[in-house]
Design a protein that fits this description.
Layout: E1 3-6, H1 12-23, E2 29-31, H2 42-45, E3 53-56, E4 59-62, H3 64-74, E5 83-84, E6 87-88, H4 90-124, H5 131-153, H6 166-180, H7 191-201, H8 204-219
Parallel strand pairs: 1-2
Antiparallel strand pairs: 1-3, 3-4, 5-6
Length: 220
């Protein structure tokens, strides 16, 4: 068995797949592909030109959500999709998918292009930071999303089913990019969310990748 993840380690979607692999104890190789300069033939692997792509032997799959669902079927232990003490619950499974979508389609547009690229990515490419755009995201777009997460988390350790899973991985992965931009949820306004993110980022899987990414950013 040979698993390869194609994509940039700073991508929240690549990170999501890598955390799933780490949580499942699977060995893999990271092939650092950037969408700004993809290798020849990359579009055949990813028709939309996005990362990550997973290579499993002679099989390839694009899209982080598709990849994570595949890995769950391929390596079912530990389960990461809506498990409770009685096994997989239909509603918990659906809510796991919902929070993954919330993170990918709700948080990412504000966190990725709106804050991380505006404050971190642009300077790394020799461009001035777009502080106006970042401020708009911080004051107008993210607060209602944070309000929602604060209410959903409540006093629970995890978002779905009382166990760590894809919902937590997807949400916490977006917050790593906020962390790289020196942005975090205000603990005074969103105490449950702030504690939740800190708790998840301290997990060995996240902590290892965060340390790796911080070294990359420090060198640029």
């Amino acid at each position: 068995m040979s698993l390869t993840v194609l994509g940039s380690p700073l991508s929240p979607f690549v990170r999501k797949v890598r955390v799933v692999l780490l949580e499942k104890g699977m060995e893999y190789v990271l092939d650092p592909v950037r969408t700004s300069a993809p290798p020849e033939g990359f579009r055949k692997l990813s028709p939309l030109g996005k990362i990550p792509v997973l290579r499993d032997g002679d099989k390839t799959l694009p899209d982080s959500s598709v990849i994570c669902a595949y890995l769950e079927r391929r390596f079912p232990r530990p389960p990461l999709y809506g498990q409770d003490s009685y096994g997989q619950d239909d509603y918990a499974y659906a809510r796991s998918l919902w929070f993954e979508e919330f993170a990918d389609s709700g948080l990412f547009p504000a966190v990725g292009p709106g804050i991380y690229m505006a404050l971190v990515g642009a300077p790394r490419m020799g461009k001035p930071p777009n502080t106006e755009l970042a401020q708009k995201m911080l004051t107008e777009i993210l607060p209602p999303l944070f309000d929602y997460l604060e209410g959903e988390i409540g006093a629970r350790p995890f978002l779905v089913g009382g166990a760590f899973g894809i919902a937590d991985i997807s949400v916490a992965s977006q917050f790593v990019n906020l962390r790289h931009a020196d942005v975090q949820a205000d603990a005074a306004r969103w105490p449950q969310l702030a504690a939740y993110v800190e708790r998840l980022h301290a997990r060995p899987s996240f902590a290892a990748l965060i340390a790796e990414e911080e070294k990359i950013l420090a060198q640029s």
